[in-house]
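agent: user wants the structure for Cytochrome bc1 complex cytochrome b subunit from Phytoactinopolyspora halophila. delegating to structure tool.
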Amino acid sequence: MSSTTPPDVSASRNTAIRGAGKVVGFVDERITSSNWLKRNLRKIFPDHWSFLLGEIALFSLILIILSGVFLTFWFKPSMAHITYEGAYVPMRGIAMSEAYASTLELSFEVRGGLLMRQVHHWSTLVFIAAMSAHMLRVFFTGAFRKPRELNWLVGLTLLVLGVANGFTGYSLPDDLLSGTGLRIIEGGILAIPVVGTYLSYFIFGGEYPGEDIITRLYAIHILLVPGLIVALVTVHLMILWYQKHTQWPGSGKSEKNVVGYPFFPIYMTKAGGFMFIVFGFILLMSATVQINPVWLYGPYDPSQVTAGVQPDWYIGFLDGGLRLMPPWEISIFGYNIPLSVLIPAMILPGVILTLLAVYPWIEQKVTGDKREHHILDRPRNMPVRTSLGVAFIVFYIVLWIAGGNDFFATVLEIPVNWVSRFLQFSLILMPPIAFWITKRICLGLQRREREKVLHGRESGMIVVSPEGEFTERHEPLDPHEAYELVAHERPVVREPEPATDPNGVPNPNYKKSLRRARLSHFYFADVIDKPTRDELERVHHHHEEIAPSSNGETPQHGASDDQGGQHH
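agent: tool returned. relaying tokens verbatim.
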């Protein structure tokens, strides 16, 4: 049975095709877009689950923008006082700001308003969590090395902006919880010597809480910071597109190529499907897991402080620092400087961000390596860098736990001072312990992989020699797997330059080279060297000599090894 297309439909379709062709031809003749599209649509991207962390951040940002646009239609960024007469009965007749009243209206009277509020909040949490995990992946794998130092700074700035915008949005409802958070920020501002009071008056529009802070935070939240985030995301993607993507070591991969799939249609199709998975996951959480029920806290009153609640996780470490800091205070030229507030609220975040920003150059100085790198490091092959990262994570987690010391004291039924004292000691002792344990684990994994490359995988089969000796037979690794285990450079421990030249003239750079050599020893002195070619040849020759004792059997590899070879 044949089908035919009616003449009028066929003619209209041909007309549409010819019209589209003319438009494409017109554009191509003027900007030669076809060559650009052909070149970029076939750009190769590697395929690994860890690369999806950045995509999760990007897709959650899209959901933040979409849900935020919806909320702007009803939210009123005003601190004008009104008497609530809305649908939420327990709050009727209570004086509150228009901002808080409009938040209650969004939650109880606007169709889908509560869902959109929760989507906006959960998307923000996922966005910052995905960015944090993505930055950790970049750090642990050395993806910040040349030529990607600029993108590391862009990513770090994006993380700071995400945290800042999350806090400004968290403060907009003008409920008791968000007001308490603003009060803590105001305390940190007042702790700044000399100019703290003036900054507080300027930001809040007068004596705290002022009358303008919600309006100003709203402008920052929906215009300034989102604009910067979108601009930096664009810059980040442009740099990523211009520089070829990093990839994990493996067979067929080198610093001069990229092994993966073309952007169109394979990568674009997979990314599109993953985007809807991220959307669905966030929407499912928003519909089933309640977050920030502002109606339970009531409108903000500067004379009251909430108890038993903590800020969002990405701000909790600052609150924890304030709770753990001893009550230190100094006086300089008649000015009292409360170190108990200034250090955790201002100095600590500044030191952390500065160290993170300059770390790529610190490692470059230590290693003396200024080459371009497109192959990622396996974290175990850089034990000191990995240990530093884990120590920082432990430091952050202890501060984060300290932000809820009252909660843990209540649950465990012990004095809150005991919890705080334990966390103070943990903040000092736990990061070095985590560093040492992580380094030992990395070195142990290196040693294990070295043995596996040299002697193969344990088979569980026992072989008896003519002399009666029992030994376990080892199966040789698949070549692709073995290559992945040795596809990293041997670290070179730098030695200091001579203190004097052959004529006895002192070397002016001796102390500098000595410091660099000590750092190099700290980074690489304990690293386990991978097998050399001579060692591999000797072991291979030894295996050939004992092969007859295994009845001439040939090790059988599973289908996954074959598939891996076909993939490469």
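agent: one observation worth passing along. Residues 140 and 379 are 6 Å apart (CA to CA).
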